[in-house]
Amino acid sequence: MDVMDRIQQQVDSAAVVLYMKGTPQFPQCGFSATATKTLASTGIEFAYVNIFEDQEVFQNLPAFADWPTFPQIYFNSELVGGGDIIVEMAKMGTLKGEMEKASEKFDAK
Fold first, then answer.
1. pLDDT at residue 109, as a whole number
2. Residue 1 pLDDT exceeds 90
3. Among 95, 65, 66, which residue's Cα sits nearest to residue 78?
4. Chain-centre distance for alpha carbon 82
5. Is the pLDDT of residue 8 over 90?
6. Minimal CB count within 10 Å: which of 4, 27, 72, 74?
7. Which residues bind [2Fe-2S] cluster (predicted)?
8. With pLDDT > 90 as the criterion, what percentage of the chain qualifies?
9. 66 is in an annotated binding site
10. Is 107 part of any domain?
């Protein structure tokens, strides 16, 4: 399976997927730490992919959805954006609701 197919399989595997540097327990950059805390603050489950564990994913993810930076967050296989976007959504009070919708839609598949 080529790397783009693997990335597609990853984003299709959960309602919310976070591509990050490190893990939620041990983030390897401040942006990944902020994204993890922001998503976790909703109480809704999310999956993650440590981009340092797969160099092909690390190198090709920016081209997958034409988003050059990490972290990247996907709801139901669609790119939401980076950490700054979900922080803004949390400040506006929309993040938890959007994650709930993504989870409901994913569960209905």
1. 79
2. no
3. 65
4. 8
5. yes
6. 4
7. 29
8. 98
9. no
10. no
| Per-chain mean pLDDT for the chain | 97
Say if residues 80 and 92 touch (Cβ distance below 8 Å): no
How many domains does the chain contain in total?
Answer: 1
Q: Which residue has the tokens 């609701």?
A: 97
**Domain enclosing residue 84, as ranges:** 3-101
User: What does the alpha-carbon distance between residue 9 and residue 11 come to, in Å, rounded to a whole number?
Assistant: 6
- Tell me the per-residue pLDDT of 38-75, one tens digit each, with 9 for 90 and over: 999 999 999 999 999 999 999 999 999 999 999 999 99
Amino acid present at 103: S
Sequence-distant (6+) residues with CB within 8 A of 34 are 83, 87
**Residue 7 vs residues 18, 38, 39, 59, 72: alpha-carbon distances, Å:** 12, 23, 20, 11, 12
